[in-house]
Amino acid sequence: MIAAVDLGGGTIRLGLHDGNGWVERVRLPNTDQPADLDAAAAQLTRWRAAHGAPTRVGVAIPGIVTADGTGLASAHGKYAHLRGRDLRAWAAAAAGAPARVENDARAALLGEAAAGAAHGCRDAVLLIVGTGIGTAALVDGHLVRGAHGHGGVLGGHVTIDLAGAACPCGNLGCAETLGGSWALAGLAATRPDYGASPLASGPVGFREVIAAADAGDPCAAAVLDRALASWAAVLVTLIHLFDPERVVLAGGPLCSAPALVSGLRGRVASHLWSGIACPDLVVSPRPRSRCSAG
């Protein structure tokens, strides 16, 4: 039995897998407070009492893993309650089993390669769009990690606008400053047509932007177009770097809006190096499940 903990941006997903399928799965709110981890630990402890200790437990986190593999090294202004926590020891104590901490995009790509959209591929990349932009790469069957654990996962911080806005990471013009949901409200507010947009009177996330764009709002359409262009730039960069046979797409806007995926394919294909054939772009049917599986 293997226990999985996915510390997602808004939801903590926990699962218990017996090698053939999920025995139990639970979703808990993630409000960026220490109590969220307490609730997740309590769930692991309940499973331990009901099913016995698992053989191991995996923890996926939305950021860079520390060099010693114990927790979150950095996420630049996000997930403050995870900073400084030994998540490996936390999970091991709650589940009663050895634990491993992994970046969530890498975990998702590993799950996709094992039994998902990248099954059978030895070379693949993953793009996850949500609060930020997450990426991961698989080369010759191995996850790209790099000398300091940053390899392949910082695609959202590729510079795509030399005169662009400062990113919380410290860089300028990162793809996330145009294509992460945290940036959408600010981008909309800079538009001259913002005052007449429905985006001016409520929360601004991808759901609201896509709905307003579909209803004909020019402000939302422009913001969405910039986001789409940023995702395409990230994918072109990943394809140029890693030469994958398949690209896996995940995240709310890409999984729920087929027209966006079609537009993304067209942009990527038109901007690739002339000798490179555009690889398959495949939407993950169960992205968060794949993260837990990884």
Automatic annotation (TrEMBL):
<dbReference type="Pfam" id="PF00480">
    <property type="entry name" value="ROK"/>
</dbReference>
<comment type="similarity">
    <text>Belongs to the ROK (NagC/XylR) family.</text>
</comment>
<protein>
    <submittedName>
        <fullName>ROK family protein</fullName>
    </submittedName>
</protein>
<dbReference type="InterPro" id="IPR000600">
    <property type="entry name" value="ROK"/>
</dbReference>
<dbReference type="InterPro" id="IPR043129">
    <property type="entry name" value="ATPase_NBD"/>
</dbReference>
